[in-house]
Every structure is written in C-alpha cells, then in structure tokens.
Amino acid sequence: MDFLNKKLSDYIHLHCEKEDQLLSELNRETYSKILNPRMLSGHLQGKVLQMFSTLIKPKNILEIGTYTGYSAICLAKGLKKGGLLYTIDVNEELEDFTKKYFEKSDLNNQIIQIIGNALDVIPTLKKSFDLVFIDADKENYCAYYDLIFNKLNVGGYIIADNVLWGGKVLENKNIDKETLGIKNYNKKVHKDPRVKNILLPIRDGLMICEKIA
Prior knowledge:
By secondary structure, the chain is of the alpha/beta class. 38% of the residues lie in helices and 21% in strands. It has one domain: Vaccinia Virus protein VP39 (Rossmann fold, 3-Layer(aba) Sandwich).
C-alpha cells in the first residue's frame, strides 16, 4: 500500500542521498529474481535505517529477518569500529544470494549471517545489543520483543518494520493472524513503561522504541 502519491514519492527520493551502487544492484536483482520483492527495505527506508544506526553508533546489532540483505548492509554502516551485526533468517534458499552481496560489501567481516528459526536462535546468543531491527513473521513480533528485551542495553533501540501493515491495523473484524500480531505488538510497545516509543509513517510504518529501564 502506498501512502503517498507517486509525484511526492519521486520528489522524496530525488532529495535523498543517492543509493549506493551495490545496494542498487541488490535492489534490481531482488526484484528480478526473488519472490515478494516488496519485502526489500529499499532506498528510502534503507537510508533511514542507516541514519539511525549512525546516530546510535551501536557496538552490536541484531536483525531478525534478513531477506536479501539490503537492510543488514544499511544498518551495518553505522556500527562502531569492530562492531558486529547478527542477522537471522529461516529461509535457507536465500542464504547464497544474500551472502554474495555481503561478500561484495566492505562490511562482510562485520556481518554474521545465521540461518534458523529466530525463536530458537535468539536465546543462544550470548551478546547484548544496542540496536535491534525486527522484520520477520508478523505473528511473532511480540515473542521476538520479549526474547530480545533483556539482551538490549539500556539506551538501546528496537525498530520494527511493517507496523502499519498496509493500513490493515485499522481493521477490527475478520483479522488475520499477521494483522493481529502487528496490532498486538504496537499495543504492547506503546503500553510498556520500560520504553519510549514513536511510530513513524515511513513506507509501511516503523515503530521505534528506546529502552529506558
């Protein structure tokens, strides 16, 4: 669902920093070869994620939902020297595609690619994180939030994608499990006294929260 008309969208992209050549290539190949290419973060959201990461200067980042690696590369650009980004995805069919682009980037040594179910993987990670990006199966957003919260440093941030879910968050009847998962997540974060939060209408919505306790 597009919340802005094409002219405004084009204007916004014209007034953003140009997309990196590698990310542009990744964007094109995802759209030409991979199922559901709209899952890609893309230029505008990628720049937003990169800027947040650069402002936060995280030592460690956790990404839940790699897809083809666009957002991971954007987020990794803001890492402190020697910092690491751990990215988890259950789809092993995309592993080689994604790895190819990680290896082409100058951030390959800072990106740890993990194939597996995030619900199983997260408890095994013996790290604390300054930034977490959630962009995986929507019905499990609340479960991911609970699993990572104690691994998030105070002052750290959680960014969740697709929190407007094409406008379906406004529906109250015949709600599918993904929409319900998003609605429950938004409510959970907004009512959690341990965080400060803001929901930004960027693309399909970004819920950003800072851990304060």
